[in-house]
Design a protein that fits this description.
Layout (H helix, E strand, L loop, with lengths): L8 H123 L3 H20 L2 H7 L3 H28 L2 E4 L11 E7 L11 E6 L1 E4 L2 E4 L1 E6 L1
Parallel strand pairs: 2-6
Antiparallel strand pairs: 1-4, 3-6, 4-5
Helix pairs in contact: 2-4, 3-4
Amino acid sequence: MMNNDAPSSSSRLFISSFASRGKNTSSRCVSTTSLARNTQKEGEREQQQQPKGDDDGGKNNSQEKKAATAEGDGATGGGKEQEEEQNEEEQNEMAEKDALIVELNERHLRTLADMENLRTRTQRQNEDAKKFAVQGFAKDLLDVADNMDRACATVTEEIIAEAKNDAGKLETLLRSFKEGVELTQRQLSSGFKKNGLVKFDPVDEPFDANEHMALFNVPVGETKKEPGSVAVVTKAGYRLHDRVVRAAEVGVYQ
């Protein structure tokens, strides 16, 4: 007779199978828990390392920004210095141009003043030349005037009265007077010639309307002169440097 309290063989198999499954399940739970813990630890490590990396990156970025800012400041400073140098050069160039303008203006004013002085001086010289053109000729005539005064002084009323009754004295007086007049004539001719004024007497020369002025006609008759030639000169002609200033007044054979 079998004992009802003793488990049957089938019951023991079920219990051992259930126990084995529980152990496997417990092992799986332990493994899963260990895996989760490991994953959590790795995540924490990554989180702990991540800020450091970010801090290093931030530091690097900050340093790069500072370097860029320093470079920008250096570039800005260099640009300012270059701009100041350029402005200084432009100011120097403008100062040189202003000085050149002042110098040219002064030269222009001096040139205008010189031209005005030259014009005034030339005008005055022209006026003086017109006014005193005959100064040399007049000076040469002074000697002639002096001789005329001396000739007139030699013939006074007293001398003429004394010479009326003395033929010899009268002759001497006339000869002296004649010599004085001839001397005056020579001086006058010399003064004329010195100034380019030449006397001409066209007797027996062919009549030239450019140099002669016919006042009357003279018959040829028995003179055997050629008709159209100058017969008589009543007033001599004068040339000034080959220019006729007075035509000779003549009578012409016809």
